[in-house]
Amino acid sequence: MSSSHFGPLLLGTTTRGEDAHIDLPELLATRLLVQGNSGSGKSHLLRRLLEQSATLVQQVIIDPEGDFVTLAEKYDHLVIETDTQSEASLRSAGERVRMHRASVVLNLEQSEPEGQLRSVGAFLTGMFEAPRAYWYPVLIVVDEAQLFAPIAGGDTSDEARRISLNAMTNLMCRGRKRGMAGIIATQRLAKLAKNVAAEASNFLMGRTFLDIDMARAADLLGMERRAAEAFRDLARGQFMALGPALARRPQRVTIGPVETASHAGGPALMPLEQPNIPMDELRDLILEAPPEPAPRPRKEPAAPKPDLLAQLDAYSSSRDAREQQQSQQMATPDPETLWNLVAEAGQDEDAAYRPLATLYQDFQMRARLAGFSRNILPMPQFQTMLSTIRCGITREQAESDAWQDIQQRAGRLPEDMQPVYFLLARAAMEGEPCPDDAALARAYGTHSLGRARRQLTYLEKCEAIILQGTGRHRRIAIIGPGWQTAASL
């Protein structure tokens, strides 16, 4: 199973009795598909995953049956009742949820099927359209996903299905760059839109009996068709796991216990007792004529809908107060540990092209996994330390007076220019050749070499550097310390 330096989430046990883990940072980058017939334990699996990660990452749960509202009692999720909200308010709430980093349960239980599709479409669209500055990582769990991304039409209108399907497609196909990690669960793969299911890289396949679903599950797991019948033998709560966040080869996993429970418990067997009244009286009682309908009461004015945006603002304020209190009680990492936490948050190959807010949320999650407060380092200091690490400066060099002066000078520049300035300063301090256009582009977070070259001209206008020559003969001098690079290679 996958392992992480920060302690992966414990899902349960394997058939060999070993711990079965899921790597949360990898899950955020690769998405998850859960499949299993009714009674296979999908909701139990989702609840286990949500409980294990509730204090580490923001969560949004699309809950068609109201099964997950009990998470709010233990983890302070905000419950949004969709039947009391308009599409416009839900769309605005989706954006606010990202801005406030609020964990919410979107409870669709009281909404009609048409309203469920429209509510989910509006809410996810609002989350998707949030400004880039708020692209924090968020787990978005969609239970009964075949309702919102159906492969064929149903009893709802074409427009409602289109709105919901477009939002689900955006979540799974384009959400990754926005920090939106989709976890979709379905009873039947054959009823789920293929373009939504195909974007998942991790799979947890539970008990299923229909040949078409078993064949599709086997294809996703890379199993031979004749091995597909193994899905019939899975017990409740057992799943075949595969994916970069789970296991390199298909492996049977038994999901561990949970701490919360759904309000709607399953049916329990009760002994059948014979009625203690004569059969004729029982017949008359059952077939008794219905009473006359009561006069229709005068319709009272509808109560105003709850102010959802005010609820989000209040949730954010109370959460910030709780986090501040918790941070005062937690240990403070030593400088080397803090340095390593920041370094590992930016070690992915594509980290240079991800928004700062996403990287900062990843750092906060790693800090919590390591047992520290998520607020041990403000975002501006995080950016400065991350840019310093990326340009090749060691922790000892970063503590020197010379580099402290560079950091102060960088603080006068726009935030997006600071990584480029640090890269140039480090090369000049060491007397190395001026970084090439590709290195400048990566530091700036762009794939455009022309845009990267233009930043040199901008830094010169800001009186941060002196640019000498062009192309292979380009040299850079850092104003202040007087360091100078060698000519470009």
UniProtKB/TrEMBL annotation:
Q: Gene3D superfamilies under this entry?
A: P-loop containing nucleotide triphosphate hydrolases
Keyword annotations for this protein, in alphabetical order, are: ATP-binding, Nucleotide-binding
From the Swiss-Prot or TrEMBL record, what is one GO molecular function term? ATP binding
Q: Does the keyword Metal-binding apply?
A: no
Task: Tell me which residues make up the AAA+ ATPase domain.
Answer: 28-218
Give the matching InterPro entries.
AAA+_ATPase, ATPase_Atu1862_pred, HerA-like, HerA_central, P-loop_NTPase
Q: Where is this region: Disordered?
A: 316-335
Per the record, where are the segments of Polar residues compositional bias? 316-331
UniProt name for this protein = ATP-binding protein
> Residues of the signal sequence?
none
